[in-house]
Give the backbone structure.
Amino acid sequence: MLNNNFFLTSFCTFILTFLSMEAIAELQPFPYSSMESQIVSEVPDYRLVLGSVAKSNGKLNVGKSRRLNANMVRSLYRLNDGFELSEVWNYYQKQVQRENAEVWYQCYGRDCGVSSLWANDIFGESKLSGLERSQHYGVYHWRSSERSHIAVIYGIVRANKRVYLHVDQLTAKVDQVVKGPVAKTSDLPIKRQTPILVPVSLDASNRLVMTSSARSMVATISKKLLAMRPQRVFFVGHYNGEEEIDDEIEKSELLAKQLSDYIMSTVTGLRLDSYGVGSLSSTHPDSGNMSQWVEIFIEN
């Protein structure tokens, strides 16, 4: 009996080790976090969500999704006290960028949809239900040899200020994953596009402030948009004021919206979308020591 138990235990350990080797996507955990749980499994019907989530007539409504047969390592981390979601998010962003990963989908804050649906319906983890303004979700894909690697990352700040990060690391055969990123019209622009940085800020009354040089830059941008008539323009506000994440996101949204409205007053007939990411994004190479700015992405 002892030998049989030993054999069964060894066999299960071998299977779990094999699945872990197959599923590992080589993303390293944030060093200032603790693992709350981890599951290693083969998932024959993984639902890869590529849009915001909501409920309609009692049914889950996902903007877009795919079904995959993949091996998975699912991990839940809690950040140590004193660390922000922006820090762990930037940590993972650098890792997927080193892999030259395609950005299949990204969303921030309320654009991701209902937090409790992500927690309970998508990931099955109640600890991921939190402040919707703090949500950050991304899907990233890259290849190595004959395998496709997909990283699904979701971060949230709970009402008690605890920060959680959910990471699904998936691997599948190359022929099971359609080549190329998913085309979405509602997500943020891919960060590999070159944005135009506009140095703007908010005053004490949360009104947009522009220097004379910034106004001159915006006038030039408006003329360019009139001449180009692009398909879509994104305004992404950044605000790093060492405040609570929710407050930073709200103020960055104000930055982007007010600049978008300012340009809209002179340029009509274009689709201008504004977003705010607070400090939940890596800095622009030209941002220097600025703590507030807006990036403009032009989609031809």
